[in-house]
């Protein structure tokens, strides 16, 4: 006899048992409705909770009931298949609730202070009782800090990736690649502490008569540390996608390697590289912790990233969140909305660019 | 450093822009204009290989950029240690085991114990909550949802992964705290006999709130990375499973999950790294208590990163050093997690690649 | 074991595109049937319709009826997974599960069916690998990755995996197109051996192969790109290759077309 038959009857397939019953949709809905009623009845009947508990209990009862009924009708395997499908759908619904709440709160609360004053003024001379005050200085700070960080991180990152892909062989390259991975995992606060101990506490006193100087530039340095590994990794991936024959074609024409890289390889991979850079920039713009440690966080407008404390949007959100003034939450939410808008514009643009990238697809 | 000989020799020989002996030649790029002259610019001896030129310069530049990464990593370690050591020396208590944080006093007393405990506790709870759900969504997007729904939904998840943590922290404090407080009170009423749900309140600004906010934050990251690996499952392996008579879920378990496992581990580890290092969201939601407790619903909880953000403002020189020392510990923890993740990934990859 | 398959007026669609039009044929038990024809003529689509793998692709559907021992496998109450266990399939490119060992690959189907006992699985793995003429080559390294084998070995591993669940029909979709001549020969030998137990239907681009291995041959063709594929002629292999009824078949066989 066949193996499957020996093990357990009814498993081996013959033409006679290829038919099976399916759980009727109506029955499925019926189980759900009954489970919900039982769940609510339990919750309220015993007085142990409100409708939320009722719904949760209902879902649990539904899953158990479904498994039992479907197991009877469709068989064990089909029932398990159905169970997992239900769980996977449930996971989606469960996750969408809080994420939708975040988005909704951001829009509804953030809209409150979307006015000219918010974008046109700073927090200079704004007391606890003043409803005005804006984030102009913070926006300036974010743009300058992220801009300078980008200027430093992009050439370094792209060159580093070129090294890894085009020149890197042997132990040194392996080491570099490994530490790029390690660097990707550095918490942003640690990057902030690094710049604090290195730049603010040790280097900056040289230029400032011996006292440590917090500055926007220090924040840029910290953001550079965070952006660098991301840019190296994404650029490396893109450069690797450039087909080898393209390089060989250039070499065969007698083009030197460095020119091949700059004129053939990098331009081919450029859309992908730019996408990676934009994502890194978006992430840097949202970083709070390192800025908090090294930028100083001034209330007034300061265009000079090298001298005096600077604000940034994310830090502004954090500071307003901790402010006791009753007008502070509104400022915090509007600043958060502005920050998310900047980050999302960058991200969406990067994704759209990636979609048009012929290399990655 | 193992240059490909066929590349460098010929390539440099043709590099006329550097030797300057021929205005244009083979080396002027791939644009059609480079064919105006014969490839080897007019006979005679072949150009000599230059000792130093653009080739070496460019290569040196890129090597330097690569080396910069090493320099930064070493610098991070060196500078953190240099600031941390004096503070730890000034510490009158054991830095590793003491569970209070008074580094600003004339007799500094501080220890990392509570903070390290809180960091790990919140991160683990966050991952326990987030990972199953994230994998569920990832599978939904890659294998269950119709394409018309999966594409935009995947896009939205990617966007949510980019939302700054300060926004999640703000939301956690202003919106999410209320339901979590109610839930905590309910847990306490009916499950108070379980130690983690015990206590007399107040509830709300608790490990539970911090962990759940963290979970919501890492959810999009883990989802988005896992979805990508799941989508890369070779279609022919999925078909092989289906052709053996697998149900959809069995196909997922046979073909998709094992194939995606290294990627999922990497995603989870990345999520863990994020959660461990998360600062602002926890600074806004945790109750900040220096006390090692497994109670997750009472006001309390603390983490290394959140403590740095909270205590930085009032820190004096030793205080800063103490915070830097705690940052060093955080750095070490994340380093271990990261390396473990890499090790797992590389090992699994070998199993698969030896194959291909 | 082996069963009779009868297709009547089977048309397969991808969305609104009709891939094959009204194919009817009868496949007798314990025979090898070869499906030949130019690229894009719908042979593979037809093959995938036989074990309902066609409908895995989005928007794919089918019309007509396909019966196996007088049971229509497209009846609404038929369990798709049961059909696929009944009718196994070997694919164009060897596709062992990359994360599994040789052993795990062979018993994957049995495990899905709830067989857990180690002794039964061991037994089945050995029997299937022996049937697939692979046992002697891999018996010392059953724990190694299945994907570490050569292409031909991988394909035989896939055949072992397919027959381990003891189907009644084995479908092969160009199983040798990615293999070298020696491996191809090994697979062909295997087909002769398996013929005693299974009904085999094979899609092939290689007419010599069709002529060598099959009892019956079906010739598919299309009029032009975008038209649905049709079954032009279906007869004994000998007849198809020596004295085809249709002009189109003759043109194709003699290399004047396709």
Automatic annotation (TrEMBL), chain A:
CDD domains (UniProt xref): TM_PBP2
Pfam families with a match to the protein in the record: BPD_transp_1
Listed transmembrane segments: 25-46, 52-75, 87-107, 146-166, 178-202, 214-232, 264-285, 332-354
The keyword Nucleotide-binding belongs to this UniProt entry's keyword annotation: no
UniProt keywords, alphabetically: Cell membrane, Membrane, Phosphate transport, Transmembrane, Transmembrane helix, Transport
Location of the ABC transmembrane type-1 domain: 139-354
Compartments, record wording: Cell membrane
Superkingdom field: Bacteria
Membrane disposition: Multi-pass membrane protein
Major subcellular location class: membrane
Family according to the record: Belongs to the binding-protein-dependent transport system permease family. CysTW subfamily.
Entry function: Part of the binding-protein-dependent transport system for phosphate; probably responsible for the translocation of the substrate across the membrane.
NCBIfam families: 3a0107s02c
Descriptive protein name: Phosphate transport system permease protein PstA
Gene this protein is translated from: pstA
UniProtKB/TrEMBL annotation, chain B:
Subcellular location: Cell membrane
Protein's UniProt keywords contain Membrane: yes
PROSITE patterns the record matches: ABC_TM1
Function (record text): Part of the binding-protein-dependent transport system for phosphate; probably responsible for the translocation of the substrate across the membrane.
Residue ranges, annotated region (Disordered): 1-42
Membrane topology: Multi-pass membrane protein
Gene that produces this protein: pstC
Protein name: Phosphate transport system permease protein
Biased composition (Polar residues): 1-11
Superkingdom of this protein's organism: Bacteria
Organism name: Paractinoplanes pyxinae
Transmembrane segments: 58-81, 110-141, 153-172, 207-226, 279-297, 322-345
Family: Belongs to the binding-protein-dependent transport system permease family. CysTW subfamily.
Domain ABC transmembrane type-1: 116-341
UniProt entry keywords in alphabetical sequence: Cell membrane, Membrane, Phosphate transport, Transmembrane, Transmembrane helix, Transport
UniProtKB/TrEMBL annotation, chain C:
Protein keywords: ATP-binding, Nucleotide-binding, Translocase, Transport
Signal peptide start-end: none
Entry keyword ATP-binding: yes
Keyword Transit peptide among record annotations: no
SMART domains cross-referenced by the UniProt entry: AAA (SM00382)
ABC transporter domain sequence ranges: 5-247
GO molecular function: ATP binding
Protein name: Phosphate ABC transporter ATP-binding protein PstB
Gene expressing this chain: pstB
